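new request in #modeling-help
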Amino acid sequence: MPEVHAARRTRLRSHCEAAGSDAVLVSRPANISYLTGCAPPRSVLLLGAGEDLLVRPGDPAQDPAGAPQPDDLRVHSLGGPDGDAAVAATGLAAVGAATALAVEEHHLTVARHRALASVAPRLALTDLARAVEQQRLVKDDEEIACLRIAAEIGDQALGELLESILVGRTERHLALELERRLVDHGAEGPAFPTAVGTGPHAGRAGHVPTDRRVEEGDFLTVCLGARYRGYRCEIGRTFVVGTAPDDWQIELYDLVFAAQRAGREALTPGVEYRDVDRAARQVLTAAGHGDGVGPFTGHGVGLEIDEDPRLAPASMGKLDARVPVTVEPGVHLPGRGGVRIDDTLVVRSQADGGPELLTITTKELLAL
Amino acid sequence: MPEVHAARRTRLRSHCEAAGSDAVLVSRPANISYLTGCAPPRSVLLLGAGEDLLVRPGDPAQDPAGAPQPDDLRVHSLGGPDGDAAVAATGLAAVGAATALAVEEHHLTVARHRALASVAPRLALTDLARAVEQQRLVKDDEEIACLRIAAEIGDQALGELLESILVGRTERHLALELERRLVDHGAEGPAFPTAVGTGPHAGRAGHVPTDRRVEEGDFLTVCLGARYRGYRCEIGRTFVVGTAPDDWQIELYDLVFAAQRAGREALTPGVEYRDVDRAARQVLTAAGHGDGVGPFTGHGVGLEIDEDPRLAPASMGKLDARVPVTVEPGVHLPGRGGVRIDDTLVVRSQADGGPELLTITTKELLAL
């Protein structure tokens, strides 16, 4: 879909021209990917007055089989040294008569910025800021289709795990098995490191799997996701291992479930990011678990697993239709464990059926 | 080993003071790890005139079980927003009366640099450059012991793979299985994405595994490594699948083997980086394969898989004793495949026994 990428670049160029910059240098890999369909390591994208140019180290002919190549813009390969000055010199030759170059100050290093400034002392360097990230917020049909497939792969891998024997296996092995299953079902790889937490580790966000083995009576929290055509999705569930959950487990689960539902139900075009967070957070705070909630209760997903927007108390901005986000409140009680429930949904208006749930694995409290 | 980290910080502080900076801000994660024993995501380390401070977002009590914590310096956790200004303000309160702050311009973003400058307009920001990377070049006994174990784990995982049936399995599955075996044998995880290339993909550096299945008569190149206590090691081997290799396969293998041996034999304290590269490269160039060799034939390993030094034609500098490097020449013939052989060795003087080979899997051409 080369015309999609060209259209995205045209939109970015218009944005920058309106802000007074006649050339743009994009360095953040996910942003390059969004604008060209590929992002070779350490490459930069230049949108000049005349033409667009991808400057990359290494020879495209030596790329792995199937590595995406941009088919609608010129690629300049740096055969020799791939230092800052070389990139700057090559790039600036392409921007030609530009007078102001917008760069991603939140990504570009000081060293590279200096190299650009020294190669072209008369070119004004301005800040592109998060213009590409803003453009990436609202997804098109193709992007949402990729996220749907990624979600389906996550559901499949998780479903298979639930049918296997869990007691006695380590967090680390369960995580590796889930990642293998993601690939079996067509993922390019995991969208992020799979988190498996049992017993006292359950309910933690981003828990790094350990050698702790699953025991009867444990809470077990699993958070995983697939990457499909570059798009990343996320699902998290908490289970009880053994036949009957304890009362405290049922109570905590119901609470987190209620919080997560409140967050999901708050997703509608025009709502403030922080109001979605508050909807989920206040359920937990009212029950005395405010301290254990963490700094955010959801975030955008797409080419990166943790994109804009952030659903957090101080986040500024409003949700649009077609923005995919996670809703993932959780509570962790030190020493005891906890619960996290995490879905990926696409914001849609009520007329359009309301939020579209991509991750459909049941949220009943299953005893495995 | 907290005193090790404190000693490393003292050495860095002396280096900076000699260069005129009385405070240092380290932002590159591997560098923070080297200087403190841990590197929470998005943290920065400040070495002030008075004290050292690790500024990190999030609560250490919520860290994964077993996550390393620095036990010999103060940690300031940012509970609220973890933006550039907050880090800068907190950090600068710690550096107190400093007049010049050295920062890692090759890592720090322009936005963060600006935030620092605006919070303390009278503080001169200087460039630390790659001072910590330079300090990391020569490894101590503890670091080399970790690399030895990482290498042993890689050898074990590779050895087991060689005993299994390969024909009909995909590159992707072989790579996943190798990564599982690394963890089985005690690795924290793979040191880098495992490369498995068969048939026409064999011999490529950093090949991303595909769904191609192993066939009789293929070259099969595997490159993998374990991460152990943060340290990363690398081994690469090429095999023939089936009973008898073709003549062209034997010839190409012998050539790459001779190049790799020449590189290994060139490793001695005081030798120029580029002379090691040339020793390996000229064997391949003399045989008419100069174009397919790639930009470097080896690199340092340690807390990162691709550290200084780089063994390449234009690299400036000399090897010291106790520097671990890879020697990994390869040739890839488009459409036909190729050979790579990759070892990790520690440079040692002849009096000390010569280069220490960490990755001991055989380099005979095995037919699997």
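bot summary: The interface with chain B takes residues 58, 61-62, 64-67, 80-81, 103, 105-111, 113-114, 127, 172-173, 176, 179-180, 183, 200-201, 204-208, 210, 212, 294-295, 314, 332, 334 of chain A (CB under 8 Å).
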